[in-house]
Fold each of these.
Amino acid sequence: MAAPHLYRTEAVVLKRVDLGEADRILTLFTPRFGKIRAVAKGVRRPTSRIGGHVELFTRSEMLIAKGRNLDIVTQSDTIDSYLGLRNDLLRTTYAYYVAELLDSITEEGIEAYPVFELLVQTLERLASGADPRIVARFFDLQLLRRLGHGPELYICVHCQEQLKPVVNFFSASAGGTLCPKCASADPTAKVVSIPAQKVLRVLHAGDYSLASRLHLTPNLLHELESLAYEYVRFVIERELKSADFLAGLRAQRLEGTQPSTQGSLVDEQERK
């Protein structure tokens, strides 16, 4: 049976790239079709009827036409624009991180409803005022787990013995935690504190209501972030620009300097 010429789907805009004088290529994540790319024609014109419905991180109901090379967005109606993250540079940047990681780790056209559900929940949490650092770490662990890349947090990946409640070591290349006696198996392995191990297990278990009630010190949050970024870099085999931007943004805030506007990320993305 031939594929239908038109199909309707929910979609979240992960990325947009300018095309020609008025069009944009959108990278979308959908519940049934996974990641897809489609053209929004004339969307950059002030008179466009769908321009406001295909903004970054917007969840919309779309009608899409099958195309020879790229599909074409013919209609779009906003379901949720997540206004709570729009005027907060830090939350917007975390949304960029979520979108960039998801785009980097997934292939096109593979159904992944649990991942779509996680994406929507993460944007809702970022927009609602939840601690974006905990939201991001929960997203990291759950995304990796749902895509089959979850790190081992309970058994030493070298000797296969149950990990004891002591300071252990995390090896991105080995796929998880090493016990002290096996730490030499990876000279680049990082020390992982007992509190960090406990939090990682809570995040990995997938109970967000419990994770959101955790009160974490800045040092512990930094440790978790460092471990997450190292593991993500190993899995996707490249750096995330949004992660670097987040690090710079936090440094500016610590120094008391005025952070740069989010336009730099937007403009850089849309030129690609």
Amino acid sequence: MRMSFRIAIAGKGGVGKSTIAALLIRALHERSGKVIMAVDADPNSNLGEKLGMKVEHTIGELREDLLKNADNIPAGQSKQEYVELQMKLATVEGEGIDLLTMGRQEGPGCYCFINNILRTFLDMAMDEYDYVVIDNEAGMEHLSRRTTKRMDRLMIVADPTKVGLETALRIKSLASSMGVEVGATALIVNQIKAPLGPELRGIIEKGNFDRTFTLPFDVEVEEFAIRGRSLHELHGSDTLYLQVKELVATLVR
């Protein structure tokens, strides 16, 4: 049975998590030559914008529609078939990337049956790709609900501050408590402007990550974020992008 190589990226807001996710997806496609499945699992969905892809529908909207209109599924279609079709319609196809956006979290009501269907088909969809990159929120709510049963790599992005690094350690601990299979963990210390001092290095050591990467603050990437430009327009020789490409080289099988 074909199984995808799954990379989950997490981190608190403001650390450049989705930026790193977008650059990693671009670099992974360029290196592997494969179509990458990108899953935006952050309720504050902006991965599509960073990838230059327009999102029309989300899984959250599909879930709400199923809850409200469970009895109005077209004749001759099972709920499973309907969900599979709608998930395909919600997938945005781009150049070397297919994007699925999870969207809003659950509102009031019972979603157990719907979530079981969604999990089944999301896992099936993921395994149609060689590589899957999941951009999570800090609390990793979607993972805690078993949106995916396993991660080959869990990459936690932090800024170079005491609070930022301690938050990264808590996210790693949270992931361990979920019972999701994790192959290896990595810490990405992002937006570095000066060498890390002994206190910050000490916090990193406490995390016992399998790998640690440091990435520089990048003025051009910051300008792209301010202007809302797609990171696929970023020059291939950009300093941050080149370092993300080196990081990807350690991931590709």
